[in-house]
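Q: Structure tokens for this one, please.
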Amino acid sequence: MVGSFNSLIFISFRFFTLVIIGLIMHHPKEGTKHFIQQRLTAVVNIVLGVIVFNFFINNINKSYNFVLDGLSNNLMWLIVIIFTLSMSFHMWIGLNHILDDYVDGIKTRSILGRLNSIMVTIVALATSLLMVNIALL
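A: Here is the predicted structure, written as tokens:
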């Protein structure tokens, strides 16, 4: 009974999240879209960041295997992955705004924007793959 309830909550949360993301991603004004995306990811980062920070602070004096067992928990590794993806997206938006505001050369801004995208993608993929690896141990 509890497992089906948890599945229902997860499916509802996933559906709600996809609807919200769909509405935000298709906003007609680019500036408004980025503004909403950055504020939304900031709220998600605060909530999930507190959970992740609390996990590591509570396990600071625990053994390596104990921390790995904690990260192997389905909920915890999922929270860490979502937190990392949200932080990466938030960082990508912020750095692109900085580039738009302070880099005058179009070619330089384009190169730095691509490097920003590559860096964010590497961080997000590496962390996600490592968390899945830990979860499957």
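A few notes: The mean pLDDT is 85. Residues 29-135 form a domain with the 3 helical TM bundles of succinate and fumarate reductases fold (CATH 1.20.1300.10).
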